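One-letter codes give the sequence; the fold follows as tokens. Both lines appear below.
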Amino acid sequence: MQRKFIVTLTKEERNELESIISKGKHKSQKYQNALILLNCDEGEFQKKKHTNEVISSVLNISMRKIDRIKKRFVEDGLNVALNGKENERIYQKKIDGDLEAHIIALSCSEPPKGHSQWSLRLLADKVVELEYIDNISYESIRRVLKKRTLKPWKRIGWVIPPEQNSSFVAQMEMVLDVYKRNYSASNPVICMDESPKQLISETRANIPSSHGKASRHDYEYRREGVCNIFVACEPLTGKRIVEITERKTKKDWAFFIEKIAKMYDYSEKITLIMDNYNTHTLGSFYETFIPEKAKSLLDKFEFIFTPKHGSWLNMAEIELNVLNKQCLNRRIGDRKILVEEVNAWVNYRNNLDSKINWRFTTSDARIKLKRLYPTIEM
């Protein structure tokens, strides 16, 4: 026969439960348990007695829960009936400082042969194999890595300059000194860069976007060749020049430099900052033009090259990124269409007078990139 638990509340206990219900500032579970106890009370201070069936129907609570709360009250008292039993179990910490250090060191090392990168399961297996611990789940490994914000399966492409490189810092400071100059129409500062563009056409018609649905295009595409995009920008005026060529040769570069010279024919000298590519040589002019023309172009320009692994110092790279995001981030399969789209973008940007606010200075470089400077022993 099932044991019956009888709830008998004292005056003080009823006052405490009624206070919980009236204030409404307690957890919903505690509030519900207080309601159950008040309605189950069979003591002298309860005017009307209720059965479990009635309480279950009115409060929309199962009979089993009502019996459970009554049992807690009878066996363990009011506090346990309201709040439940405290968990007295003591969990032994499985991952201590030493094991955590081993996991971190392992995740920062080279993965085993046959694997391109570490995974959570691979790390868990390796930790056990090296007998750092008898067994461990990959979820425990994940928590350790998350705590240290480590992602050994992720890699980022990065241009890493060599440390303590005098040639790098010399070229860098030369570029940064040019960026400090005030605007001068007679000697403008222009940054120039270039990038390939893959021509890609659709094999099936796209489905335009509709209410609640994004536009869709097929995964299949057709390659239509590659062209080259030259970009030159004047950061202080927000002016830019773009040229699209079939190839990327010394002559293509020389013709683009000639185009810049024609557009700035009113300037006595043009300071041109660009990356140190093998096509960007002074001899390219003599391979393209007659000697008189080549010499006049050389006299027109002051060439400043960014250091090797220092293309981020070229502000034209910023303009190229904007071009890629705003205009070229789609499939274009015809060079003629590409030229039309890019020219429309150039006109739009030039009308906005979008300038580049360069803030990185030589003083910043000597602090933030101190590792690149040679150490001088006095």
In short: The longest strand covers residues 189-202. The two ends are 95 Å apart (CA to CA). The mean pLDDT is 88.
